[in-house]
Design brief:
Elements lengths: L1 E2 H11 L6 H15 L4 E2 L1 H9 L5 H17 L4 H17 L3 H8 L1
Antiparallel strand pairs: 1-2
């Protein structure tokens, strides 16, 4: 379980520190966390919220990385961490390889 409010406090402190592409990522994470505030959330649910948004693909990937770093910073037990990493691995398996996408475009 992730306590969204702890993450939200950290991300709120980061907002003025970044500009450009990184600021888009911080804003995306901040807005997603704000929607889920005042409740503990499973990390896979948080990843899904970040990935199922209208943001561009690079921002989504950066947001997931940022949340993963935040999550590890806030101290997590090993069992839960392993489950979350397994979930991300499954998500990656479901993605089409880039070569398949390129062939389809030709």
């Amino acid at each position: 379980m992730v306590h969204v409010d702890k993450m939200l406090r950290l991300v709120s402190d980061w907002r003025p520190l970044y500009e450009g592409e990184r600021q888009k990522t911080v804003l995306h994470v901040h807005n997603t966390l704000e929607k889920l505030s005042n409740q503990p959330v499973e990390l896979p649910t948080l990843y899904d919220q970040l990935l199922n948004s209208p943001a561009d693909d690079q921002t989504k990937r950066d947001a997931v990385k940022m949340v993963r770093v935040l999550y590890h910073t806030l101290d997590v037990n090993d069992e839960e961490q392993a489950a979350n990493e397994a979930y991300l691995k499954e998500l990656r398996k479901k993605r089409k390889p880039l070569s398949a996408v390129v062939k389809k475009l030709k």
